Structures are given as C-alpha cells and as structure tokens.
Amino acid sequence: MKIVPFKIPRSGNEAIRVQVDAMPHLYNHLHQHPEIQLTLVVESHGTLVAGDYVGRFREGDVFVIGSNQPHVFRNDAVYFKKKLKAKAITLFFDESTLGNLFWQQEEVKSFLPFFRNSLGGYRFKGKKQEQLRNLLLQIASAEKMDKIILFMEMIKLLSSKKETTALSHAVVQRPIRDFDGSRLNAVLEYTFRESHRTIRLEEIAAVANMTVVAFCKYFKTRTRKTYTHFLNEIRINNACKLLLAGDQPISTVCYETGFSNLSHFNRIFKKITGKTPGHYRTSV
C-alpha cells in the first residue's frame, strides 16, 4: 500500500499548481507533501484526518493542509460501494512559488508568518470561506496572468486570521518513511472499515504487526493521541453523519457506530463535539 512521500505532479513550467480531482472517491491513503495545500471540496463528504485533527468534510468546505502534515480526505463508505462522484479543487504552493525573492518584497512580507503558522492546517467559515470558494472555482479554469492574479487575491485573504479555525497543533512534521506510512495507513484503513464494532487493542496491534505496548507508544508518538481516542473520534464523526441524515433514534445511532453503552456514547459525543447528540441534530 503506497503512501508517503507524495509528489505533487507538475505540467510544464507553470508558476501556480492547481489540481482538479473528479473521480468516484478522493485519494484515500494517508499522505504528506512539502507544499501547502488549499482545498475546496466541490462534491462529496466524509472524514478528514489531518495531523491530530479528525472531523467531517462536505460540499463547500475549504481547508488548508500544512507543509508535510499527514492527511487524508476519506470519503464515506458509500463512495466505495456505489457509482458516485467526488470532486475537489486544490491549489499547491510554498515559498518557492513565484520565486523565493518574491516573498521578500515589502508588499508581501506580511504573508510570511502564514508559512510558519499554517503547519497544523486551517478551515474557514462565513464570508471568507465563500470568497476562497469562489476564487478556487475561478482558478481551476484560469490561464496565464489571470491565474497569478487570483493567487494573489487568495494569499491576501489567507494572511488574515478572521473567520479561520486551526485544525491541528502547529508542529514541524518530519517526512514519514515509506514503511512507517504503510503501517499507519493499514491502521487507518482497518479502523475506518471496522469502527462499527468493538476493536480490541490486541487486534489493531496485530494489524500493525506490533505488540500492544509497542503499538500504543507508536500510535501516540505519531498522532499525539491514544488509539482509543482516535477510534472514538471516527465513531463520533460517523454518528454526526447519521444524526443529520435521518431521524433514527439516538440509541440506534449509538449502537450502529460501535458504542455499546448509550450513556458512554452521550458522554464521548459531548466531549468531542461540545454538544449532546440531540442538540447537535437540531443545531447544525
């Protein structure tokens, strides 16, 4: 199973790299690359894992993924079973975009802190999300000078902290070795697939081909959280999807997402989302 490092494809000598993905599901393996990634989800929904962040994504969401931040936009299971369409527009850039000297000019030096502060990634809301969404839709089909002008408008928006929420802790990410990345991917794939039932530590440690003690230390070092906490985050994200998709009783959602105790489910749900399941269903 291939994973990291991931090399962003280039076509020709273009200064601005834009990628439009339109396929049955988005790239579903944990990966990283040195470029900063600005992504608009045009169509589809699922779970984003980025650093120590786990959360839902859906149509219209705009995210920044930091340099070398391990991440995956994992579409919901239905995208792997039915002929659906997932689409995303992504802009890749770093301090070499438009040339290193460009970022030293007085007019754009105020943007330099963004490179350092964006390591943990961001998501946007309100008017800023709408503006970035429109600019990304335009840049997907723009050419030559128009593409550079749109890029300049985007970095102007990104330099402001208004309507911006950090995803993960901003830490310098070291490149993950191929073997290490494959192991993490196997753990994630297994967790997404089997999260609807009890997963014992012995079971998931065997997936990683490690002892329980070694696996717990390994997972905490790589993700800054315990495996149990990560598994609960995946389950709660699945619960959020079910709560918004229909009128199933909360108890049914609890058991379908892998929890065996309703009071435990309610407690974990509020701890992760800040809301009770009932409040979440009516407020989102």
Keywords:
284 residues; alpha+beta; Jelly Rolls; Arc Repressor Mutant, subunit A; six-stranded antiparallel sheet; three-stranded antiparallel sheet; 10 helices; 41% helix; disordered N terminus
Task: Walk me through this protein's architecture.
By secondary structure, this protein is of the alpha+beta class. It folds into two domains: 17-166, Regulatory protein AraC (Jelly Rolls); 195-283, Homeodomain-like (Arc Repressor Mutant, subunit A, Orthogonal Bundle), CATH 1.10.10.60. Helices cover 41% and strands 17% of the residues. Strands 1-7-2-5-8-9 form a six-stranded antiparallel sheet, with helices on one face. The protein has a three-stranded antiparallel sheet with strand order 4-3-6, with helices on one face. A hairpin with a 2-residue loop joins strand 3 (46-50) and strand 4 (53-57). Helix 2 runs antiparallel to helix 3. It is globular.
